[in-house]
Amino acid sequence: xxxxxxxxxxxxxxxxxxxxxxxxxxxxxxxxxxxxxxxxxxxxxxxxxxxxxxxxxxxxxxxxxxxxxxxxxxxxxxxxxxxxxxxxxxxxxxxxxxxxxxxxxxxxxxxxxxxxxxxxxxxxxxxxxxxxxxxxxxxxxxxxxxxxxxxxxxxxxxxxxxxxxxxxxxxxxxxxxxxxxxxxxxxxxxxxxxxxxxxxxxxxxxxxxxxxxxxxxxxxxxxxxxx
Length: 227
Hints:
Blueprint: E1 6-10, E2 42-50, E3 55-56, E4 61-77, E5 87-96, E6 104-106, E7 112-121, E8 130-136, E9 145-151, E10 155-166, E11 171-179, H1 180-184, E12 198-201, H2 208-216, E13 219-224
Parallel strand pairs: 2-11, 9-12
Antiparallel strand pairs: 1-13, 2-6, 3-4, 4-5, 4-7, 4-8, 7-10, 8-9, 11-13
């Protein structure tokens, strides 16, 4: 059992994770606002965003909502090839006022060493894609204007789980964080196109290539020590 929190890694790996062998298993278990989770064994993946939405993201940026649809979410280990015990076909991460994603719990995860946590940031076929909304001030003393980033490009993410060993009857918790500031920092807001007093960035915007690269590499994972 790991006695102290340790950094597991951060990477947007170019290797694209494939679909799980059985998409009917696993579940995103509801948790209360206090973070309590039913059950005391298996793997738990908690979700966090930096900075914590909703709120200020620097002197001139305010984040109002983040929505990240995920596909083919799976934990890979020596006894878990990403089957129904450690995978879900899809889930949606959403941060907004008073709302944040529930933990993802694999209560039937087999004991053993785990090497990677993989998923795609990708819509589920409805072409909605991922989305970030908020406000930005373009100059000193200027009024804030709305911005929205919306894109349907699939982005593969593969995070190393170095040192994660699940023992029989034990529970291990991993915190997965997305660095929203790293994504928003790629935008030259002062020169972004403004339409109807809004900044809309999508597949046709020149900024979207840098946004995609930043989002794919903005995820990190760390093991939370068991009390």
